[in-house]
Structures are given as structure tokens and as C-alpha cells.
Protein: 2OG-Fe(II) oxygenase
Amino acid sequence: MKSLPIRPELREWILSTTRAGHSVQAVLKLMQETGYDPRQSRSIIATVLNMPVTALDARAQKPGRAPGRRTRHPDAPGTVVDGRAIHVGVSMESPVLRVLNGFLSDQECQALIDQAMPRLQRAKTVDSSGKQQVDARRTSEGMFFGIGESPLIRNIERRIATLLSIPVDHGEGLQVLHYLPGQQYEPHYDWFDPEQPGFAAITAKGGQRIASLVMYLNTPEAGGGTAFPEVGLTVTALRGSAVYFAYDTGDTASLHAGLPVQKGEKWIATKWLREQPFQLAPR
Ligand SMILES: O=C(O)CCC(=O)C(=O)O
Ligand SMILES: [Fe+2]
Structure:
């Protein structure tokens, strides 16, 4: 896209208004009310705030609640699931987020790493036509466990289902990712963008994603936290803990990134949850 000349006063106004706590969507609305056309205002805001225009397109969409089932957000101070005490270390409502301490035992973390290691491949993302593709934004290696494929996986899936009060079959297969120093997962949303041409194909089974649980299987020596840049929060990657976040379609507060590992390595297991059953789960 060609860059537009932006008046310094307009640039300063956008910066000071967002710094004062107004949402980007509010800034967009104000600009349109003062006569800027919507495309032009999006492009100007994206340039000034140094963010992808696509993120602003999503902001402009009306956030929507997927019609299906929702997860229950765990309450502080925590709960006992299957005899395991899980503590809510941090709670936030926008985005809806919980840091869950003690979600996995050290043995479970190690077993997940050991079982995933021989099956790792360069991590893929889903492209706009619904196909899996290698993605430069995601430089880690990964693999998927089949739903309920072993007693270990079944235990973890049941724990997630109980804690979040959603049936096991609403989950996608558990994904394990491995990052080396310098590797990262750049800012993204886990919900699927309805404007993307592949949306219908991606959501044909299971519908929209409604929540994510990222479990940390080890503690990187430096770096590798999960950042939520819209709220200035970084969750530390700590073995056995997890971050849960839930979202509606278009919820831009759920923007998140796997920060580059600076030293050591990082292993995570991610469970994405859908609004409808995604698969037939053996129980
Ligand atoms: O690596 C992380 O901390 C985040 C991973 C993530 O965003 C995902 O698996 O969807
Ligand atoms: Fe993600």
C-alpha cells in the first residue's frame, strides 16, 4: 500500500488519544465522524500505531459471539481437578485471561516432551484457503497428538474439560511446539477471521474457536513468555503452568505472541477449543 502523507497534528492526536486510553476503534470512529473515509482512516492509524492494517480491519468488524458453547472461566483462587490443585495466579477480563499455576506435573510435562520429540515437524499455520502451510511468522517445530491417543493425553484432556466445563470433543488435538533461541510466534489471534476466504472450510467442523490454553512444558532460561500486547501483559513461561484465554470473534484484546526465546529452549502444549464438537472423542 502506498504511504500517505500524515499531518503531524493528526499523528500527535492519534498517539495522544490512544495513550489516554481510548480504543483504536474509538479513534477510528472519531476520524470518520470528522470526515475521513474509513479506508483512509484505517491506513493512517495503522501507519501511526505501527500495526498491520488487517488488525484494524478486524477491529472495524463487529465483534461477534459464536452461537455455540462457551468455556467457563476458572475462578480465583483456584480449584481441585482430579486431585490436582490448580491455582489462578492472574485474572483479567479484557481479554478474558487466567494464569493457571500447577496445571501439569513435572512428570506430565516431561512425558509430553518425550512423546512429542520424535514426531516434530516445522510448525504450520492455516492459510486463507484453509490449507496448512509453513509460515515464516511461526518458526517453531510442532506436532499434533490425536484426541485421546494415550492415557497421558486422555488425562490432560479430561482435566481441561473439567476445569473449563466443556466436553472433550470440543477440543482440537493437543499441539506441542518447540522453540529454539530466536524462534517465536508473532502477534496473532487464535479466532478465525470471518473475512478470510477459507473461513467456511476451517469452521465447517467444530465452528469458531472460543478459547485457548497454552501449557508451558519447561522454563526457558530467558525469553519465551506469551505476550498480550494490547494490554501490556507478558505471561512467564514456567514449567507446569498455563495461560487460558477466551474470546469472541473479532476480540482484538486477545492478540498474543510467543516472544523470542533468548536462551535455552521452550516447549508448550496448546489446546484450542471450538464452539461445537470438533471430533468424536474416545472417552
Ligand atoms: O508460544 C506461545 O507462547 C504462544 C503460542 C500460541 O499463541 C499458540 O499456540 O496459539
Ligand atoms: Fe495463539
The pocket of 2-oxoglutaric acid (ligand 1) is lined by residues 185, 190, 212, 214, 226, 256, 258, 268, 270 (CB under 6 Å). The mean pLDDT is 88.
